[in-house]
Amino acid sequence: MNRTPLRLVLVTGGAVVGGFLALSFVSSVAIQGLRAVTEAKRKKIAPPCVVCKGRRFMECKLCRGNATIEWSPLYDPVVTKPCVCPTCEGNRVQRCLNCLGKGYA
Predict the structure, then answer these.
(1) Model pTM?
(2) pLDDT of 1
(3) Where would a tag sit more exposed on the chain, N or C end, judged by fewer CB atoms within 10 A?
């Protein structure tokens, strides 16, 4: 049995798939580099965020910096339990929602 036509199809298919993968990798690297350059320029000339004043974090809005919230499983609670804040996970600060933690607007 002659296997050269099958080998030709496999080699050609492998070359096409490899070419697509290589092209995809090169384009993704180029896009990431372009984004990094653009972000660096934007950071250099942008004013600081007015909400967090460039600190990138702000006091948690849900627990108001207490790290815990009062929670009860019932609508009209008889007993409330302190639980760790789900927004800041007990860290008392959260990422600025205005600048998304970048520090500039």
Answers:
(1) 0.54
(2) 55
(3) N
